[in-house]
Specification:
alpha+beta, five-stranded antiparallel sheet, four-stranded antiparallel sheet, 5 helices
């Protein structure tokens, strides 16, 4: 049985990111080079260089780790293999899934080469869905608290809020408030997380 090189590089990158390693070394093949080019172009990795060791070529990837004033900014790089040798998953261009509403990418193998979901939709071609890739910020960076005035109540527990700095945002009810069927009315001052 052959090796799944795409699953190998996905696992290597995921493990290196979880261990907070700066670089990771993967075997160089045509497929891995094309996937790494997409990762570099989309900004998921910082740098790539090709390295030769005793007649074998390797790609050395530099992972992206941002810093802020309080220390290292942790991003969680999520990579998920979809189509695998035992179960191939294909999609036409209209049914290619959107990851986090377009925040992540889908890498496809098409008749015109390996490309992202956006490129496949523009060229109107489908193909084999190789993997999903998306980034989530660290948990400390994810929570924001805003205060504002509810200006409009919308269906499905959603509402429009005017913040203190005059920006308008869309909020939604969740947790105990949603389970208790508490109605959100315009004119109420609220705190949003």
């Amino acid at each position: 049985m052959g090796r799944d090189t795409i699953a190998d590089i996905i696992t290597s990158i995921r493990n290196a990111d979880m261990d907070r390693k700066v670089t990771v070394r993967i075997a160089s093949t045509n497929i891995t080079e094309n996937i790494v080019k997409i990762l570099l172009r989309e900004g998921f990795i910082e740098n790539v260089r090709k390295h030769q060791e005793s007649n074998k070529y390797f790609l050395v990837l530099t992972l992206r780790h941002r810093r802020n004033r309080k220390g290292a900014y942790r991003t969680i790089l999520n990579l998920k293999r979809i189509s695998r040798p035992g179960l191939r998953i294909y999609s036409n261009y209209q049914r290619i899934p959107r990851i986090l509403g377009g925040m992540g990418i889908v890498i496809l193998s098409t008749s015109r080469g390996i490309m992202t979901d956006r490129e496949a939709r523009l060229e109107r071609i489908g193909g084999e869905i190789l993997c999903y890739i998306w980034v989530l910020p660290g948990m400390k960076e994810q929570k924001w608290i805003h205060e504002g005035l509810i200006t409009e109540s919308l269906p499905n527990g959603m509402f429009r809020v005017r913040l203190d700095n005059e920006n308008m945002i869309l909020g939604y009810v969740s947790g105990k408030i949603r389970r208790s069927f508490i109605r959100i009315l315009p004119g109420i001052e609220s705190k949003l997380k």
